[in-house]
Amino acid sequence: MNLLEFLNFSSVLLFGIVLTLSFSGLSFRKDPGQYSVLFLVFGLIQALAYSILGSEFLFKAYPVLIHLPLFLVVKFYYKKQALLAGISIFSAYLFCTPRKWIGTFISLFWGYDANISYIVQIAITLPLLFIIVKWVAPYVVRLKYENSKTLKLIIAVPMLYYFIEYTLTVYTNLLYTGGAAIVEFMDAAVVIIYFVFTVIFLKTLYEKAEMKLEYMALRVMENSFSKEIEMLRESQMQAVIHRHDLRHHLSLLYGFAEGGNIDKIKGYLLQAQRTWTKLHQSCFVKTTRSILCFPSLTVRQKGGGHTAHCCKAAQGVGNFRHRALQRTVQRTGKCYHCCKQNRGQVSTHR
């Protein structure tokens, strides 16, 4: 048994398990026990396969012995989506490629010595893990918030690379001995993958842009409905205020009737009829001016028998005008001088 080769298999297993769990959102700092248990279980399986069946069998059976069981653990034990579990497995395998390439490149200076390649791969395992877990894994973890279309788009590239890699380098030697046909196939595969990825990605962007426009339209409708509801509430409040003021007017008329002042009642009603006729023929500003500025009724009661009723009625009219003045000034700002001219006509005796 080649010790360096066995250690390299162990470092590959550690590399793949850590990346798979990190990409699945399982932090090593929060639960290192999960990492340890998985590494021991799969390490035992790998050691038995290596010692009994040999390195060549282990190399070719890796998808069945390691990748598929690890996918099932992430999917069913950790309750992750199938697409997310697949992205974690395929992406972890994808990141094994630069690790292997660096070892092969360094061994170039020693005539492609396999032991040199194993030593380099083992040595760079932890630094690569630190870099990928720290700066790449957080972005992969956020894929859980994406929809299935986006996840299918993300999983396409590492999955295609996985199957092409195993077909051309593990189960066959076509990548190294196939000649020009295989080399051109790799070029064509890269181009096809690029354009498929681009088309799907652009389609996703267009769909998101359309959804954004629909969302903005819904927001505009929501704001419009909110304004209408606010106007209804304001109208309801104004109706309550008008009802309150109307009660004061009725109190005024009741005071006149109780005192037997029929002429004052007639004059008040006649003046109100004339004013309301003008209201019907004018705009909002003129309407409000007519309400606020029509000549006030002079309340005088001799003998003192009904002074309290008359004063209460006059106070009600004053309150009504004060509120109407505030509302009108807020909307138009033009009624002040009109009311000021008629203020001298008000004569209220208590």
Q: Can you walk me through this structure?
A:
The chain has 2 domains: 3-145, no CATH class; 231-343, no CATH class. Helices cover 82% and strands 0% of the residues. It is built from 13 helices and no strands. The chain has helices at 3-23, 32-53, 55-77, 82-107, 114-135, 137-141, 148-170, 174-177, 180-258, 262-281, 284-293, 307-331, 336-343. α7 runs antiparallel to α9 (180-258) and α10 (262-281) packs antiparallel against α11. The N and C termini lie far apart (117 Å).
How many individual helices? 13
Total beta-strand segments: 0
Summarize the biggest pleated sheet. Answer: none
Whole-number total of structural domains = 2
Provide the structure class.
mainly alpha
- What separation lies between the terminal Cα atoms? 117 Å
Rg from alpha-carbon coordinates: 43 Å
- Binned, the helix content reads over 70%
Spans of 5+ residues with little confidence (pLDDT < 50)? 283-315, 328-350
Question: Which range does the strand content fall in?
Answer: under 5%
Q: What is the oligomer described by this structure? A: single chain
Q: What is the H-and-E element order? A: HHHHHHHHHHHHH
Overall pLDDT, averaged? 79
Form type: elongated
